[in-house]
Design a protein that fits this description.
Elements (H helix, E strand, L loop, with lengths): L1 H15 L8 E5 L5 H9 L4 E4 L2 H15 L3 E4 L8 H7 L2 E5 L2 H14 L4 E5 L16 H9 L6 E5 L8 H14 L4 E3 L6 H6 L4 E4 L1 H4 L8
Parallel strand pairs: 1-2, 1-8, 2-3, 3-4, 4-5, 5-6, 6-7
């Protein structure tokens, strides 16, 4: 099964990088996938999944969790502030903390709940105007606000390199930024480049089509 192949490739990449076994978490990106494909991956034993939209996750995962038990769910797409409450109910981790307005509302919601998901700040390493994320030169100030007055427990950084670019310089930039801020979790690497990401220090890789197959428009 593709899941077993991807898991084996991750293990080999971890070993090749001289890193401890089990130091990389595989997030199976199930967004816009038919339910039968997601079920097959659950039946194969995968218990960490990623979704792009709160609404889709809300329609899919309560039933799967009732059937399969504990599933760790990561939000890897943009988070709208009007979906914040539902996101906190559903997700164990949020990889798209990307702007001050969201950080402020998230801090307020977390304070009211007394619990916080694992948080990754999304960094726009390519400075692409159409893409979300904090610019590298703005990261110091953003993290200072999150960790200071907002008291948000940021765990790591996330990035999506430009589509046509060599991803390695972007992965290394993200790793350097994380190390400079004492953050030890790096969400980077997807189906086509996760082995490169692991060589650069990724702790979380987000793999979709290589596990599930290409997405179909009917699934959306």
């Amino acid at each position: 099964m593709p899941l077993a192949d991807i898991s084996a490739r991750i293990e080999r990449a971890v070993a090749a990088a001289g890193r401890p076994a089990g130091s990389v978490k595989l997030i199976a990106i199930s967004k816009v996938q038919p339910l039968e494909r997601v079920r097959a991956v659950l039946e194969a034993g995968q218990r960490v999944f990623g979704e792009n939209r709160v609404q889709e996750a809300e329609s899919k995962w309560p039933d799967f969790r009732a059937e399969f038990g504990a599933v760790e769910l990561h939000l890897v797409g943009p988070l709208q502030t009007n979906k914040l409450g539902k996101a906190l109910d559903l997700f164990d981790a949020i990889h798209s903390l990307d702007r001050p307005s969201l950080a402020k509302k998230l801090a307020h919601a977390v304070q009211a709940r007394g619990a916080c998901p694992e948080l990754f700040v999304q960094v726009n390493t390519g400075r692409e105007p159409q893409k979300a994320g904090v610019a590298p030169e703005d990261l110091d100030a953003f993290l200072a606000e999150c960790r200071g007055p907002l008291d948000l427990p940021v765990a790591g950084l996330m990035a999506i390199p430009p589509a046509e670019a060599d991803p390695e310089p972007h992965f290394r930039m993200l790793a350097d930024l994380a190390a400079g801020h004492g953050l030890d979790r790096l969400s980077m690497g997807m189906s086509g480049d996760f082995e490169t990401a692991i060589a650069c220090g990724a702790t979380h890789v987000r793999v979709g089509s290589a596990i599930f197959g290409e997405r179909t428009t009917a699934a959306g």
